[in-house]
Amino acid sequence: xxxxxxxxxxxxxxxxxxxxxxxxxxxxxxxxxxxxxxxxxxxxxxxxxxxxxxxxxxxxxxxxxxxxxxxxxxxxxxxxxxxxxxxxxx
Length: 90
Known about the structure:
By secondary structure, this protein is α+β, with helices and mostly antiparallel strands. It has three helices and three strands, in the order αββαβα.
């Protein structure tokens, strides 16, 4: 696997978080929605492995590319705001 994961913008846009092992290999990739088989294949090519199985998603719904484009900013903002609200215990 590669130490620094450089994804194409269209894939990076769908990723919420990438976690790394102490040796800088990727341990987990969390997307907002499940990635398509083609997107997973593309990431596996970038990781230079076929055995990585650390794909996770926040939401379980499958969305089309059009649905994602139409709602991604709202989804990201809502999710980001809710995370910040969790830290605000006042």
